[in-house]
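Section 5.1 Outputs to date
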Amino acid sequence: MSETSSVAAAEAMSAAAGNWRRAGFAGAAIGVVAAGAAAGVAIERLTVGRGMRRKARLALDAAGPYGSLRGTPGRAEADDGTPLYYEVDEVEADGSAPRRRRLFGRRTPGPVTVVFSHGYCLNQDSWHFQRAALRGLVRTVHWDQRSHGRSGRGAAQQGPDRVPVSIDQLGRDLKTVLDAAAPEGPLVLVGHSMGGMTVMALAEQYPELIRERVVGVAFVGTSCGNLGEVNYGLPVAGVNAVRRVLPGILRALGSQAELVERGRRATADLFAGLIKRYSFSSRDVDPAVARFAERMIEGTPIDVVAEFYPAFTEHDKAEALGVFAEVPVLALAGDQDLVTPSSHTEAIAGLLPDAELVIVPDGGHLVMLEHPETVTDRLADLLVRVGAVSAATNVGTYGSTAQPGP
């Protein structure tokens, strides 16, 4: 970020801080910052008429196929009673996926199942391109984390004695989904951002499951700890101020969810610019893809944002990564990720020396949507390495949705 834009960002943060008591601005500013998906303003959106912007959104929503893929639905009940929604895409019944094979030195019955875990304020549809590429070639499970997508609100996060969500709880949720959707056979686990942290929590709590069944892992734009040190591309003073006041403000806003949601809707144009700034790095992301990301993030209620936020500063799963030492690992991130910087992915690879480290040029936090061909290619290579698909398999081309930056 240039000095000029840094000053502008600091001024914007200062102005926002002075108006957080106004529900409209609070809903946009806090909801987006806490979602970890935005921290700038798309000026061009503020110079176009409101009616025109609304028509453009409707047109993009109607034209974009993103998030339209569906599989066989299922529901599992978490240990606290929360209903967790998942979908399964089965392989084609043509013998293309062997029913029994030796995978990475392990003899495991049944077809490989690739399980995708999404990030904070997203849902299973964030893997749209990878899901489309792998359909019919390998069995996949896509699930919505608690309080996201089609899963139910966290049971422990409701009522007078509500408990903040923990990453450990998400690890147990993933175990519940595995027991229901893939109770046997080899597994490849894929996690983006919070989803990667969920995979680490699973490993920490169920190391034997990893040793016995997991044959490959992909960590995409995630972190094993030290998230409290991330500056989101903002000046030091601004970041420190946000860290001091944000937890308390989130708690307050989470208790006035309906009022704040009205504020977020009223400032939708600012919200959209913020999302684009921190979701993508590329100069010219497909507008339909940007709108797709916007829909997912803006669909996360402010009280859910508040429930999950504390878990990230407490997250520390560096030791848990050791469970994956004998498993092929892909560690991938965008080089301009301001939410979970690529240095965090490099730290994961440093703890797993045999991991394949891929830093995608001109890639932001939602790298799997911004540069889907790169992500799908490296994921397909991982599946070939562990024997989940044949080296001759053509996963198709799902090209980049963006033009490279200047």
